[in-house]
Specification:
The protein is mainly alpha-helical. The chain has helices at 6-19, 35-43, 50-65, 73-86. It has a domain at 28-81. Helix content is 60%, strand content 0%. It binds zinc ion.
């Protein structure tokens, strides 16, 4: 029986993955310029393109500022300060 190390196992899985035929048309097109697109790039082991990187940044900003709308930088700072102060 073969006694594989973890590294050899990883290599084996990698080899099998590389040999697997591509899905071709079954693959969904990447939604470039969005957070979702960035995830799709990562899922495929590709570098995230500039458009998607920007989309992801916008998405993160939106989350950080809340769904209700954008805060100005000053409002954001004030909110952070209030939160930090209130915790004590
Ligand atoms: Zn992209």
């Amino acid at each position: 029986m073969a006694d594989l190390t973890d590294a050899e196992l990883d290599q084996l899985i990698k080899d099998i993955g590389l040999k697997r035929p591509r899905g071709g048309s079954q693959r969904k097109p990447i939604a470039h310029g969005t957070y979702k697109g960035a995830k799709q790039h990562r899922y495929r082991g590709e570098p995230v393109c500039d458009d998607c990187r920007q989309g992801e940044r916008d998405y993160r900003d939106k989350l950080r500022h809340g769904q209700s709308g954008y805060l100005t930088e000053e409002e954001w700072q004030a909110r952070q300060a209030a939160r930090n102060g209130g915790a004590r």
